Amino acid sequence: MGLHNFGTSGGVEAVEMFGDLPIKNWQLGSWKEQAKKIAGQTMQPKYLHAHYACNACPIRCAKIYKIPGGDHIGHGPEYESIAMLGANCLNDDPEYLVQANHACDVYGMDVMSTGHSIAFAIEAFERGILTEKDTGGLKLEWGGPTVVKLIPLIARREGIGGLLAHGVRKAAEIIGKGAKELAVEVKGLEIAGHDPRGHVSMSLNYATAARGGCHLEGLTYFLDRGVTAPDFGYMTPLDPHVSDDKPPVVFTMQNYLSVFNPLGLCKFLFPGRVGPKIVASWQKAVCGWDSDMDEVMAAGERIFNLKRLFNVRQGISRKDDVLPPRMVVGKPDGKAKGVVADLAGMLPKYYELRGWNDSGIPTRERLEKLGIASYAP
Length: 377
Ligand code: SF4
What we know:
single chain, mainly alpha, Aldehyde Ferredoxin Oxidoreductase Protein, subunit A, domain 2, Aldehyde Ferredoxin Oxidoreductase Protein, subunit A, domain 3, two-stranded antiparallel sheet, 18 helices, globular, binds iron/sulfur cluster
């Protein structure tokens, strides 16, 4: 019912409670009262215009909001907008948040990378790495006003917006002066709004996902929160702060999501216990393929390896399967206080499960087993 009523914005307070919410460019671990102010449950009575859904979906997780300051309506902020344009920028003002989310929609900008870039810039300004000389006289401060001011500048690549439009990796390279320490990205993609210290399995996910800091290639944090996956035998919540047992979990979930995603299946089917057995039966119904769970998972492993092979051709290897500096420092408070994932311990076990060598390159032996040896590097 939470998704039905509030969409993903209804989960903000729970995410904060888990120590999973990015706060102040990923520096803080607790923001309880403020999170409540920008949760869907609080914003919706004031701004909701209508609910809507993908074709025939009974969940209808999408919400249309009335946008403050005019008669127009637009998409209401979902969890990632709230996390990145809200908490990560210390913006707890619903009015600014709804406006910022709408502006990103209108300009066609990703709310996650945009929020990251703004939080990065504010922190850089606070630390004197960026100055008013760089910003054209703008004072960058934590909170909503700076967020709504920077979005159009980024969209038009005007002034400081031209720098931030590159994303945090490139912006940090251009700025120098230690700005890399503030850039929270993997392989150039700003990480999603799920803190790999709140759910350590996400460290391995982010480090090895083909796109970089993408949460949708693994979704392992679902399993820490009590979502069960009977086909894989995950029936009780996993410990979100323990690293040792996570390599097989990440291996399995990445393989499954590698099939789940290209089939265009909504992620919220997963909490509904749609596992590979059901996917196999759907494939049979739609395509006539007589597959089973093992074949679905083998297809997923093939797809994951093909993506890795593409990346290997582009020069990606173990040196790139890393976390940004901020993620190897524990948070000062909240449920995940002091937690840091043991990525160095997880990576060799993960490579072994994948049949990749010590450099993170798929071995010919594994590629032959998967029937894709012709793509071997
Ligand atoms: S299919 Fe998924 S994304 Fe679409 S309305 Fe339903 S729950 Fe939301």
